[in-house]
Amino acid sequence: MHQPSLFEPAEMLPSRLPPGLSYQPEFLTEAEEAGLIELIRSLPLAAAKYKQYTARRRVVSYGGSYDYDANRLLPAAPLVDELKPLRERVAAWAGVAPEDLVHALVAEYAPGTPLGWHRDVPNFEHVFGVSLGSEAMLRFRPYPPETARREDVLRVPVAPRSIYAMRGPSRWDWQHSVPPVAALRWSVTFRTRRDYHQGREQTNGVSKQMGSESIYPTDESTMVTTISR
Length: 229
Ligand SMILES: O=C(O)CCC(=O)C(=O)O
Ligand SMILES: [Fe+2]
Known about the structure:
Elements lengths: L20 E4 L5 H12 L4 E5 L2 E10 L2 E3 L4 E3 L9 H11 L6 E9 L5 E4 L5 E9 L3 E7 L11 E5 L4 E4 L1 H5 L1 E5 L6 E9 H4 L13 H5 L14
Antiparallel strand pairs: 1-11, 2-3, 3-6, 4-5, 6-13, 7-12, 8-11, 8-13, 9-10, 9-12
This protein binds 2-oxoglutaric acid and fe (ii) ion.
């Protein structure tokens, strides 16, 4: 379960956060950020596909690639060596072993690129996201959507060089989205396997039924858009 930590200086955060969300600014130095951006520019990013749609952000994934037609996770290339130092840093921050971060997704958002409302695919449990380049707004709304009202949407600005964690309710009982970014931004998200945590921690009754996934397409990586408000 999420616990408040030193990483959450109250003055940096909106007054309400979805439970289970952690955020820390200045996780990386500017030099580290610049090095990562240079690396990402050399990676084979490609416009992601979601069923018949092509997403506007460009991505490359490591450790697994979700097939939205077959609704299953396919093997993907292992993490490139150059991203292993970042994975170690993220793992240390998150309190997990580096190799437990089995999935990594590098995403590039050109100016004007949004990411639609979704939950990440149910094969994974915790999600840790490092932001590079420019600020974005992460929005959260309760899930399932029919219970959501406009005033339930919470906005969490994520700065370049920051890191966030989505665990517990923020990961399973809320959807998230990113409205069109103003300037070029990248995120590197790492995920643990869902079954890795089973038996290790209480889930506090949080619903993790996969059945809902087919009704509301929920993407980890390649969603164009689902329901916008
Ligand atoms: O860019 C971000 O920080 C959000 C990424 C995201 O939600 C995802 O890849 O599932
Ligand atoms: Fe996501």
